[in-house]
Design goal:
239 residues; alpha+beta; five-stranded mixed beta sheet
């Protein structure tokens, strides 16, 4: 297949061009990265610092590639931080969440404390039995708001690094609906930042929950007595 490879800033200088059309059999970002290191020896040992984006969305090593994709190599951005941009550490997923994926986004050598919050679908809500539920989201806005929250808290508590993945679609009792992770040199900052992260996500991110049980279906918050005018309670607390 044919890919358009885009190089920026320091990576562009190492390669000697800002773009190239490349015929490749690489099916994933990881395979392409290995191929580019072979093709451009100046990149060897450097790609650990580089983020890949596929069609203008940050990608993971396992992201699949398709004919015609535009793949950008994005070196660390201005500011001197080695952390990935906030946009790269939040996600809305319609497949089961992976705990380690979220934790790996906040690990680094200076982090002596890792705090996580996992929101799990429970079997009841305000006295009603819950057998399943569906999460829906205004996904593009939700991602931007989650990234904004991450950046806010990291500005308020500069020593922390945060990540959050939220699930949408049909979930069964016991499945993970959201995983939040916070890292810091010490536990106090990690716990504080993790609590702020989940609280602000629940207050501000446009995600809705429709619960299902023997009594029928209902949107959490819509007919909730606590949902008074002016109070936009979009989903309740996870236990």
């Amino acid at each position: 297949m044919r890919l358009e490879i885009l190089y920026f800033a320091a990576v562009r200088e190492l390669v000697g061009t800002d773009r190239e059309a490349r015929e490749t059999a690489a099916s994933t970002v990881a395979a392409l990265a290995a191929e580019l290191e072979e093709a451009h020896p100046a990149l060897r040992g450097r790609l650990a610092q580089v983020r890949f984006a596929v069609n203008e969305a940050f990608a993971e090593d396992s992201t699949a590639l398709s004919d015609g994709d535009a793949v950008a190599l994005i070196p660390p951005v201005a500011g001197g931080s080695d952390r990935a941009p906030a946009e790269a550490r939040v996600a809305i997923r319609d497949t089961p969440l992976r705990y380690d994926d979220v934790l790996d986004l906040v690990r680094h050598p200076s982090a002596g404390a890792l705090a996580t919050f996992v929101g799990v679908v429970r079997d009841h809500h305000e006295g009603r039995t819950v057998t399943a539920l569906e999460y829906s989201a205004y996904a593009s806005m939700a991602l931007k708001e989650m990234a904004r929250i991450v950046a806010e808290i990291e500005s308020e508590i500069p020593v922390v690094r945060l990540a959050a993945h939220h699930r949408v679609g049909e979930l069964k009792v016991g499945e993970e609906a959201i995983i939040c992770a916070a890292s810091a040199p010490h536990r106090g900052e990690a716990f504080e930042a993790g609590r702020l992260l989940i609280d602000r996500i629940k207050e501000r991110v446009p995600v809705w929950k429709r619960e299902r049980g023997p009594d029928g279906e209902w949107w959490v918050g819509w007919e909730d007595a606590r949902c008074t005018p002016g109070h936009h309670h979009h989903h309740d607390d996870h236990d």
